[in-house]
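Internal ticket - ligand job 236, cytidine-5'-monophosphate:
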Amino acid sequence: MSPGRRRPEVIVALDYHDAAHAMQMVDCLRGACTFFKVGHELFTATGPRIVERILASGSDVFLDLKFHDIPNTVRGGVRSAASLGARLVTVHGVGGRRMVEAAVEGAAEGGGNCGVLAVTLLTSLAAGDIAQSWGRGSVDVETEVLRLAALAAGAGAHGVVCGGPEAPHVREQFGDRLAALIPGIRLAGAATHDQARVTTPEAAAAAGARYLVIGRTVTAAEDPARAMAAINASLA
Ligand code: C5P
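stdout (C-alpha cells):
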C-alpha cells in the first residue's frame, strides 16, 4: 500500500438463513474481524434482532439492503436502519439523485453515525448484462460507474459500491470525497461463483478501497478463521 493510504476495513458478509449460523461465524472470527454485513437473506429471516446481537458482540454492522424505491420510502428505510445502529447502509444509485439525497437525510434523522453508500453497478453484472437490462447496444462499465459515482457525490453520499476494476478511477476522480466499498473479492485464481467483476484483497487495497466486503472466500473456507487471518496479513 502506498504511504499515507489507510488500510481498508474488512467486512465479512453473513449470507446465512438463520441467526445461529451468523453468530457462529461472528464468534469464529472474534479478534480477526469486527465488521459484518447483514444482507437480504439474513435480515429477512431474522429481522432487526440480528443487528442488535452483532452490535452487542462488539462489532459494527453494514446493513446491505440496497434500497431502491421512491425517495420518501427510502428515507424511512434508511432512517430505520440508522436508528438500529447500522454503520453503513446501501441504496441503488440508479434510484436517482433525489432518492439518494433522501437516504442521506434519513440516515441523519435516524441518529448514530450511519454512512450511505450508493451501489453503482452490481459486481455480478458484466457489460453485456447491463446493456441487456438497460436496452442498450453496449455499455462501458467504467463510464457508467463514474456517472453514478458523480450522482452519489452530488447527493451527499458517504461513498459508493463498485467493482475492483473501476475503483482506481473512482479514487482518481473523487479522492477522499467518496469512500469506495468493493465486493467481489477473490484470492488469485479462486472460483468467481456468480461474480463477474472480481479483484484480490491486495489489488482492492491498492486501488484505494475504504471497505472490502468478503463473503465466501472466508465463510465457505474450510477454516474461516485461518482464511481471515491470511487476508488480514495480506493487507497489513
Ligand atoms: O461471497 P461473495 O464474496 O461473492 O459475497 C459478496 C457479498 O457482497 C454478497 O453478500 C453480496 O450481496 C455483496 N455485494 C456484491 N455486490 C455489490 C454489493 C454487495 O456482491 N455491488
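Auto-summary: The mean pLDDT is 95. Residues 37 and 139 are 30 Å apart (CA to CA).
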